[in-house]
What does this fold into?
Amino acid sequence: MTNDTKPTRLRVTEGARAAGRRLLAVCLCALALGGCARPASVEEALDRHDYRTARSLLVPLAKQGDAAAQNRLGVLHYLGLGTPVDYPRAARWFKRAALAGDANAQRNLGSLFRQGLGVPRDDIRAFGWYDAARRNGHGRAEDYMQWMTQFVGWNQQAFARRIVADDLKNGKISECGEGLLMSACPPPTTP
It folds into this structure.
C-alpha cells in the first residue's frame, strides 16, 4: 500500500499577502522605535544596561559639577561598565564628587584608598573618607569605619579626620603617599 497523495498547495490571496506585509511593517516599526530608541535619561539607560549611553549622558552633567553624576561616572569606570576598567579615572571622578560633598563618592574614595586602586594604598585616608561619608549621612559608612579600627589606631583616626577636613576645606585632595605617616607629608607651603 502506497500513499500517492500529493501535498495540497495553499492558496494565498492577494488580500492575505497585503495583510501579511502590513503586519510585518508594523512589527518592524515597533522594533525600530521601541527596541532601538535612545534612552531619554541616565536612569533609563542604566535600567536598560546601556552603560555607554549612560556614560555619554553623565559626562556633560559631571563636567558642569553635578556631584551625583561624577560619582556615577566613577562607578562606571571602577566596574568597567560601558568603558574599560580604569581605577585612576574612577578615582578622579570620585575625588571631584567627594570634595563636592557626595557621601557615596566619599565612601567610594575611602574604598579606593583602602584597596590601593587608582590611588596609593592608605588606611588612614580610607578611614578619613569613610568618616566624611558618615558625617554626610551615608548609611553604611559607620560599618566601614568600625571595620577599619582594627587597622587604624585612635590617634591615626584623629589624624585621618584632620587630613580629610583640610582636603575638604582646601577643595583639593592631598596625597602624601602610601601608608601616610605625619612625617611622610611635606610641610604645607605658605604664600
About this structure: The chain is about 60% helix and 0% strand. The chain has a mean pLDDT of 81.
